[in-house]
Each structure stands twice: as structure tokens, then as C-alpha cells.
Amino acid sequence: MDKNLQEKLTTMEKKMTEKMKEKIKVECDKVKEEIEGGINESINFIEDAMKEKMAEFKERAIDNEQYCRKSPVRLFGVPEAEGEDAETVDVCIPNPCKNQGMCVKDGFSDYHCLCPADFLPPDCANKTVNPCVPNPCQNSATCQPSQDKKSFTCNCKGSFKPPLCTCDCPKGDPRWVPPIRPQQCKENGACYCPSYDGNIYTLVEKGCQEARQNPCDSNPCQNGGKCSPTANKLSFICQCPDQCTGDLCQNCDPDKICTPGYCKNGGTCVVVGTKPFCKCPPNYLPPDCGKQIITTGIRSLCHPNPCQNGGTCRKVGFDTRECSCSKQFDGKYCERDKCMDCDVHAICYNGQCKCRTGYMGSGFKGDCKSESVCNSCPLNAVCVDGECSCIAGFYFIDNTCKIIVGS
After folding, report:
1. Which stretches are annotated as coiled coil (predicted)?
2. 13, 222, 238, 248: least CB-packed within 10 angstroms?
3. How confident is the model over 341-360, as pLDDT tens digits?
4. How far apart are CA 97 and CA 184, in angstroms?
């Protein structure tokens, strides 16, 4: 028997079986209504009749093979072909798949399309959207689309971090003294510290910090206090003279600042702010009038050096001199310490006042407020200069920010 015919017969047999089962159920329901208790006998009778009909149908189909080929109507009323010499219609001709998709038959009358890489089922009509075009991955990483083209994965090089292969180095923290600057990425994604401002920086947890120097180099202790760095060189301790107290020895008894013998060679001690200064007699130099100007036949404007606190003296013109001061000091003779203006909760770094960690503000006296104050601001309030203030439209009542109706 022709293989095609055999397949058709098998399919028809299955469909006939299903229809016969439906007919059996209908007949059984009728029998049940008419004869109570005779259902089983009726079913057996109908099943026997069904078997006889199926056997008769198979015999007729085999004996009349050409009839099935030439019939203008496919089984169950689906048009297939017409004419005395017609052949079975191929569901893949003409090709229902678009954009050069391949049609694959599924059984007797169905099909599916195998689409090219850039097109989508069911009929290959719609083009896929490639999530890797343009490439979303950074730092020369390759992009791998998912199978359904709905997502992608970046294959990162070196130490760059997924999902997009970005540089994941610490961003720094300007609140530290000296400030911590951001780390940068090398070509392989490894973090390193560049040479900011020509200075040497070292890797720390939050970024890059200028190589640790002695915190006492800036002379943070006031009024003759002695500075001692801590073991990690991140901070210092001031040992104050008897007349002064405070973290920086900034609180002094005015009557005790000018101690006996502070100014030498007849100099007069005066208090400026909280620090003692000496008014020296002619030919003697500050800070303590201990150095004497020795006059020789050759005039020297910068010898001995009149500049204080490490300042450098240089001649300007024939009979004029000026002092170049370090960042911490200014004044004609570098006699003024900029750190005198710093708050007790601030650190002086290169002549600039910066609040210590845990405090915020400008760093000047009276302007370093605890950050914990801002953490306790009520709802509808903002922290400004270390103080809680209600936003516009709200008023501070009973430690909360409230709206006053009618205001």
C-alpha cells in the first residue's frame, strides 16, 4: 500500500474513532433514558457495530485507493484538490514563510517556519532587535545577546566590573584631611592613584590620599603648645602650657599668656588674640627678640633673616625686602598664623581650616557643627549650616515642622 495512503488512513481512523465515541455517548444517553439498567448492553452493542463499520471502511478505502486521491474534498470537508488527476495540496507551496524562512510540514495539514537569525516566528515577518547594537558594554568588552534577543551579557576584560564592565574604583571622600581623591582605572581595570597636583598619593580604602606626613608639621598647637603625632600619623595631641587648655591649647588665661622671660633682650610681651608676641627693641628680631642684627660695612637686607615661621627673605630693589611665607602663615614677616582662625573641632591643613570627621561647616571658629545634629532633623526639615530648618510653608512647632492653616 502507498505510504501516503497508509498515513491518511491512520489519521482518518483516529478521527472516525473520535466521532464514533461521541456517537456512542449520545446513544448511551438515549438508552439510559429509555431503559434503566441496560447501559452496559447498549454500549457493547454499539461498540460491536462500530468495529464492523470501521472494518468495512478500511476494506472500502484499500479497494478504492484511487478514489481518495481524486476526491475534490479532503476528509471532513477541507478542500484539497479538484480534477480527475489532481494531487494532494502541499501546505508549504507557495512558501508561507517570509524573508527566506524555511517551511516545515507538521503532519497532514499544518506547518511551522524556520526563520533566519534576524527574523522572528511564526512567519519570519518581523525583524529581531539586537540588544548588542549599538554595543552597551564599556571598556572594549564584547556583548553576547540572549537566545530570545531580549537581554544581553557583557564579557568584561581585566578587572572591569559587570554588568556593563565599568570602572569600579573608590570615588574618594573630600571630608577627610587631607582630602581623599578618587582612584582611577588602568587599561586593564585595575585601580591606581595618579599624581594629583604633582604630589605623591597612596591607595586607601576610600580612594587616594596624599602620602602621610607628620600632622605636626603645620604647627597646629597654639600658644606654645607642644605637638605630638599619633601612632598612625592621622592626628596629633597638644601638650599645653599651664596657662592654656583645649585640643589646640586655644583657651588661655590672658593674665598668664605672657610668662616672665618670654621676650628676651628687653622685648615687651603683648597678647594678640590668644597668642603672645614680642615688641623688640632696635636691632633685635621677633619672635622672641633673641636674634640681634649685626651691622657691618656691607649692608644685607636679609641677614639675619627677618622672616618668621620658615619664611624666605629676598631683596626687591636696592633697599627693599619681602618675605615669601609658607601656606600656613602670612603677614609682612610671616608672623600671622592662619590656623588661629580655625574652630576647635577643625584641623588646619596648608593654612586652610577644615572641620574634623563628624563635623561640618567652613572650619573657622564657631562654624564646625556636629553632623549628628543633621541626622536628627524632623520630617519636612533640612540641615543648613549644622542647624535644622523647616522647608518653605512649614513652621517649627514642638520640635516638628508643621503647616499652619490659613498662613
Report:
1. 2-34
2. 13
3. 888 777 777 778 888 777 78
4. 53
